[in-house]
Amino acid sequence: MIEVKNLTKKYGNHVAVSDLNFKIGGHKIYGLLGPNGAGKSTTMNMMTGCLSATEGTVKINGFDIYKDPVRAKRMIGYLPEIPPLYTDMTPDEYLVFVARAKGVPYDQLFRQVAEVIDLTGLGTMKKRLIRSLSKGYRQRVGLAMAMLGNPDIIILDEPTVGLDPRQLIEVRDLIRDLGKSRTVIISSHILSEIQEVCEHVLILSEGRLVANDTLESLQSLSLGRKVICLSVKGEEAAIREVLEAEDAVTEYSYDESKAPAAGVIHFKATVRPDTDPRDRIVLALASRSCPVVSISMEESSLENVFLDLTSRRDEPPAEPILPDEEVTE
C-alpha cells in the first residue's frame, strides 16, 4: 500500500507538484499519465525517496519514506526514466552488485540474478559491457535491477522508451505478469501505452491530480459523446444563433486550434447521443447566407477525455475524478 498525503514540490516560485492525495494498493497495474512536464517523474522520485518533498508525506506499507527510509525502500523496486547503470560492467556483474547493495541474502543472490536475466531476455547480452548495449537492452537491465529483492511494489518511469516493437510487446507482457503478484506503477505520456497494460489510472496536469479512477470508468466518460467540427463563411453572431437554436447541441465553442482564414470561422459543437443534426445546421446556416465550407462528426474517445482533463490551462483546477471506492490492499 502506498499512501500519499498533501504531497507538494516547489522550486522557488514554481510549483512542480501540488497537494497530491491518493492511495495505491493491491496486485494491480496503475498508470500515472500526463503530458510532458505534468510532474510525473517528480512525483515518482518523491514516492521512492529519491527527492525530498516540500510538503506532505509518503508511506509505503505504513513506513514513512522520509522518516524510515531503509524499511520503506526495501519494499520498492524503482526504474527511473534514465536507468542508473555502470556502463563499464556487464549486466551480470551489475545485477550481482545491485543485489548485494539491496541486501539480498547470499544463498538467494545468484538465483535471483539468473531469474531476472531470464525474465527480461538478457541471456545473450549478460556478458557484454553495458556501454555496448542498445538503449532497449539498457532499459531491460534497468527493469531487471528494479525486480531484484522481490519488492512488493515496482515503480517504472517510462519503462518502454527506446524499445523496438518486439521488445515493447515482451516488456508489456512482463509488466502484466508482475501485476499478478505485485503492485506495479508505470508512468507515461502516451495514452495507448497506459491502455495496453493498466487497470487503474491517475492523470496529472500541471502538477495536480485531475483523475484517479479505473480505466473502465474513464473510458465510460467518452461513450456516446459526439462532436461536430464546423467551418463556415459568415458572421460569427449568425453562426452562434444557429448553434444556440439547435436542440441537439449541448454546448459549442470557437475552435481555437484552427486559425481563421479568408473569412472562414471554425466551431466545435457537442451533440446529444444518437443524434446527427448536421443537415439541419447546414440548412439553417444557408438561410442566413453563411455557406458551410466543411462539417464533420467526431466520436469522442478516451483520448478526448485525457485532452479535456489536461488542457484547462486558463481555468481554475477542476475537482479530480475520483473512484467510487477507496483503493485498498
In short:
By secondary structure, this protein is an alpha/beta fold.
What string, H for helix and E for strand, traces the elements in order?
EEEHEEHEHHHEHEHEEHEHEEHEH
Which strands sit side by side, in order, in the main sheet?
6-7-8-3-9-10
CATH superfamily of the domain at 2-75 and 151-221, please? P-loop containing nucleotide triphosphate hydrolases
Number of helices: 11
Ranges with pLDDT <50 over ≥5 residues? Answer: 313-318, 325-329
CATH classification, class level of the domain at 2-75 and 151-221? Alpha Beta
- Work out the oligomeric state of the chains in this entry: single chain
The whole-angstrom Rg is 25 Å
Distance between the termini: 6 Å
CATH architecture of the domain at 2-75 and 151-221: 3-Layer(aba) Sandwich
Basic shape: elongated
CATH fold-level topology of the domain at 2-75 and 151-221? Rossmann fold
Structural class computed from helices and strand pairing = alpha/beta
Range of strand content: 25-35%
Helix content class: 25-40%
